[in-house]
Design a protein that fits this description.
heterodimer; A: 207 residues; alpha+beta; 5-stranded antiparallel sheet; 40% helix; B: 74 residues; 39% strand
């Protein structure tokens, strides 16, 4: 059973503090309360500050934009004012809308990037990407494999088809499929520039 | 019609121009130059349309020019 609860039917600068059974006291927030938090609470009646202080240290004191919002004794279920509950519901709904919007934009961006990537691949590369999540790119007798991904997803293959070197270079801030297309375009149009900028790591030492 | 496909976090955004419209060509060229100035790399697809070729200057006759943010080592 919570020891304290509050009601928002009172003016914002003054709340009645209830025990579980009776009203025990009324506190007011001083003009500086919002700056220094609970230490600015002033008492006008029977419960003294040291008692409050001891109780508050054992619980959770809620402050919101309007000041005092509620107090929960350690181990007790939270008690929130209806104003706080309404605010939290509004914030939850706003967060859910923002998340849905972000997800929708992300899905749209990926779809556009996928279409652009496919426009720059031949039939074999598209089939490979759909089947294996990578496609190969032959440049001047060398074969690169571009895996689905953005970082460390470009590999150089040896004659046996083994991935011998890993390269990490990508444009930042674009969907995965756009990054893969950018990697492909740079490798096939200016391989030396790609190799200059990419971090490389040997996967299999070739004698 | 020509098209700039500009990569961004929203997927590619498109700027189209009519080759017979000097103002549209000028606007596309201006966008191209501005992005190149920011380090974007520009490509057009050649051959059967699946091989990239870098463009250093705007080509009003290109069907599609893909602009990618600069590549960075990860």
């Amino acid at each position: 059973m919570p020891l304290w609860s509050c009601s928002d039917k009172y003016p914002l600068t003054s709340w009645s503090i209830y025990s579980s059974t009776t009203i025990t006291n009324t506190f007011s927030l001083s003009s500086t309360a919002t700056n220094i938090g609970l230490w600015a609470l002033t008492s006008s009646a029977t419960i003294t500050w040291p008692t409050w202080s001891a109780q508050l240290r054992n619980g959770t004191f809620y402050m919101d934009a309007n000041g005092f919002s509620g107090f929960r004794e350690a181990g007790a279920p939270a008690v929130m004012s209806s104003r706080t509950r309404r605010r939290m519901r509004r914030e939850q709904r706003a967060w859910e809308r923002a998340e849905a919007d972000r997800e929708r934009k992300h899905t749209e961006a990926r779809a556009k990037a996928r279409a652009l990537l496919f426009a720059g691949l031949d039939r074999d590369q598209i089939e490979s990407l759909e089947k294996h999540r990578y496609f190969d790119l032959k440049v001047a007798g060398r074969c690169y494999r571009i895996h689905q991904g953005t970082h460390g997803n470009v590999r150089l293959l040896d004659d046996a088809g083994r991935e011998v070197t890993l390269y990490c270079a990508q444009p930042n801030g674009v969907p995965t499929e756009d990054a893969m297309l950018a990697q492909k375009l740079l490798i096939e149009s200016d391989e030396a520039a790609f190799l200059r900028v990419a971090n490389a790591r040997t996967l299999i030492a070739v004698p | 019609m020509g098209e700039l496909a500009i990569m961004s976090d929203e997927g590619d955004t498109s700027v189209k121009w009519n080759r017979n419209s000097p103002p549209e060509v000028a606007a596309a060229r201006s966008t191209f130059d501005a992005l190149r100035g920011k380090g974007y790399l520009a490509y057009r697809l050649v051959g059967d349309g699946t091989k990239g070729e870098q463009l250093l200057t705007f080509d009003p006759d290109a069907e599609r020019i893909i602009l990618s943010p600069a590549m960075a080592g990860g």
